[in-house]
């Protein structure tokens, strides 16, 4: 029959291993979270920046163009 101390040591070891596994998972999850935060901030900065260097539309290109009318057949 195992001793009480032996059983407690086994449980302590199992708990310590579980805590270590959870710490590793927590670190990985925190790193992923930080990458997502950085990505969100970067996208926000890009979307809020003025498009000074990007292509611009002139007034002519921005206005709709009417299609030519077909001449009535006679």
List keywords for this structure.
about 70 residues; mainly alpha; about 0% strand
Written description of the protein model:
The chain has helices at 4-48, 59-62. The longest helix is centred in the middle third of the chain and has 45 residues, at 4-48. It is built from two helices and no strands. The model has no long low-confidence stretch (mean pLDDT 84). The chain has a domain at 4-49. The N and C termini lie far apart (112 Å). The relative contact order is 0.05. By secondary structure, the protein is an all-alpha fold.
Helix content: 55-70%
Strand content: under 5%
Number of E-state strands:
0
Output the number of helix runs: 2
Which class best fits the helix and strand makeup? mainly alpha
Give the SSE string: HH
Question: Biggest sheet: strands, sense, closure?
Answer: none
Low-pLDDT parts are none
Radius of gyration: 33 Å
Overall geometry: rod-shaped
Amino-to-carboxy terminus distance? 112 Å
- Indicate the mean pLDDT: 84
Region (Disordered): 48-74
Biased composition (Low complexity): 58-74
């Amino acid at each position: 029959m195992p001793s009480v101390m032996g059983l407690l040591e086994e449980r302590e070891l199992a708990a310590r291993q579980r805590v270590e596994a959870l710490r590793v998972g927590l670190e990985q999850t925190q790193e992923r979270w930080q990458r997502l935060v950085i990505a969100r901030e970067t996208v926000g900065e890009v979307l809020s920046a003025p498009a000074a260097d990007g292509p611009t539309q002139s007034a002519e290109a921005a206005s709709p163009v009417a299609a030519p009318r077909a001449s009535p057949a006679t």
